[in-house]
Amino acid sequence: MLCVQYCDQHPEIIQAAELDRDVADMYETLLELNDTKLDHYRLELKQQLMGAAQGPNASGLLKEALQTAKENLED
């Protein structure tokens, strides 16, 4: 999460298109995972990653990626 925060603060250091696509792909995968089939550790990781994109202190990068993932899955 510190890396994501750093990227939010310094957008000039990353290739935004690639990172946005990769993070959105990650969230698509997470959204498709069935929670009941995940072991405790994977479910906790999924919840932490989903939480990182939601809520008042969420990273802008992750919020946008989650929204993109939701839109991609709707299509």
Write out key terms for the chains shown.
75 residues, mainly alpha
Description:
The protein is mainly α and 75 residues long. The chain contains four helices and no strands. Helix 2 (16-32) packs across helix 4 (60-74).
**Helix content bin:** over 70%
Q: Could you tell me the number of beta strands?
A: 0
The coarse silhouette is: globular
Q: Give start-end ranges of low-pLDDT stretches.
A: none
Structural Rg: 13 Å
What amount of the residues lies in strands?
under 5%
What does the average pLDDT come to?
Answer: 87
Order of helices and strands: HHHH
Structural class comes to mainly alpha
Describe the SSE topology.
Blueprint: H1 2-9, H2 16-32, H3 40-52, H4 60-74
In short:
This protein is mostly helical. Helices cover 71% and strands 0% of the residues.
